[in-house]
Design a protein that fits this description.
This protein is of the alpha/beta class and about 240 residues long. It has one domain (about 5-240): Decaprenyl diphosphate synthase-like (Undecaprenyl pyrophosphate synthetase, 3-Layer(aba) Sandwich). It is built from eight helices and six strands; from the N terminus they run βααβαβαβααββαα. Helix 4 links the parallel strand 3 (about 95-100) and strand 4. The radius of gyration is 19 Å and the shape is globular. The protein starts with 9 loop residues before the first strand and ends with a helix.
Length: about 240
């Protein structure tokens, strides 16, 4: 178990490998996505238990609409079912749900489920769970810029950050991608500018508490300089210690 002092405040995860997990077992890809829901359930609990305050997951990207129609339809059905089944327990566990992404074009059933889930968990504060659904980092930047352009006036980095879809939480400290791939895939392009990245070879349905602890341990060993030098950080640390 990692020390609370080394746990990232905000973890973001690209949950990759559900389809490959199923294919390796000669099962339909949708079975892998169902197992992925189970893995997310474990991860939410593990993050809350370890003191993580914000968890953001990439559930369905803007580009995922290009997958086979049967798989997309199955994912929409699975998402609607998961909302019904998982939200009561998430509410009981103190998890506050936010769904981040373009909602236009979603079915009435899915859109209603999203609104109900957010309303039901709005007063929770143990862990914020952001589910990026029909989300893309480029879409997020464009919608923020359009929002600011409509208001008129100059646009600063601070303004942009405040207009992004994840403005309600700080930027992620740690971005994890499972499945052995080492790319960002249009996920949190703006917000991950100074995030630490960790890539796991485990397929998402295999990503368990031990794998999460390995990622957190790796994070705790990084030096986060934010453009400064190691020497500057040492002086800053000494100054804080003497305050």
């Amino acid at each position: 178990m990692t020390s609370p002092d080394t746990v990232p405040h905000h973890i973001a995860i690209v949950m990759d490998g559900n389809g490959r997990w199923a294919s390796k077992r000669f099962l339909p890809r949708i079975v892998g996505h169902k197992q992925g829901v189970d893995s997310l359930r474990r991860c939410v609990k593990a993050c809350a238990d370890r003191g993580v305050r914000v968890l953001t997951v990439f559930a369905f990207s803007s580009e995922n609409w290009n997958r086979p129609a049967e798989e997309v339809s199955g994912l929409m059905d699975l998402f609607a079912i998961a909302l019904t089944r998982e939200v009561p327990q998430l509410k009981a566990d103190g998890v506050q749900l936010h769904f981040v992404g373009e909602r236009a074009g979603l079915s009435t059933k899915v859109a209603a489920g999203i609104e109900q889930a957010e309303f039901a968990t709005a007063s929770n504060s143990r862990l914020i769970l952001n589910v990026c659904f029909n989300y893309g980092g480029r879409w997020d930047i464009v919608q923020a810029a359009a929002k600011l352009a409509a208001q008129g006036g100059a646009v600063t980095e601070h303004d942009m950050s405040g207009a992004m879809a994840l403005a309600h939480v700080p930027d992620p400290d740690l971005v994890i991608r499972t499945g052995g791939e080492q790319r960002i895939s249009n996920f949190l392009l703006w917000q991950s500018a100074y995030s630490e990245f960790y890539f796991s070879d485990k397929l998402w349905p295999e990503f368990d508490e031990a794998a999460l602890d390995l990622a957190i341990t790796a994070f705790s060993q990084r030096e986060r300089r934010f453009g400064k030098t190691s020497g500057q950080l040492a002086v800053q640390t000494d100054s804080l210690a003497g305050a």
